[in-house]
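Suppose a colleague, Dr. K., hands you the sequence of a protein chain of 99 amino acids and asks what its three-dimensional shape might be. Before reaching for any lab equipment, you can write down a predicted structure in token form. Begin with the sequence itself:
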Amino acid sequence: MISEDYSEFDTATYRVIQLLKKYPETRNSDKLLCELYYRYYENLEIPLSAVTTSYATLIRVRREIQTKNPVLGPTDEEVKQKREQKSKGFKEFFGGRHK
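The predicted structure, expressed as tokens, is then:
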């Protein structure tokens, strides 16, 4: 069961990289990333109840990819700043709780 989880994660990682490269606007919009992922890889025009790869998995994968490969980061400076602010706030809020 664990290997299946990793397999899904690896497949999603590869697919998200392809979308981030081919459609730079997906670097700024998780909604667009998910819409294109589901359309091209799951042949869905989005009834989300039928989705097999979760929205959360795609977002985690996108975050990991963009952390390791800044060249695939947001193309919109405002999006980049908002994400950095959210990340900083999250770290400040939760960071102090685990000391």
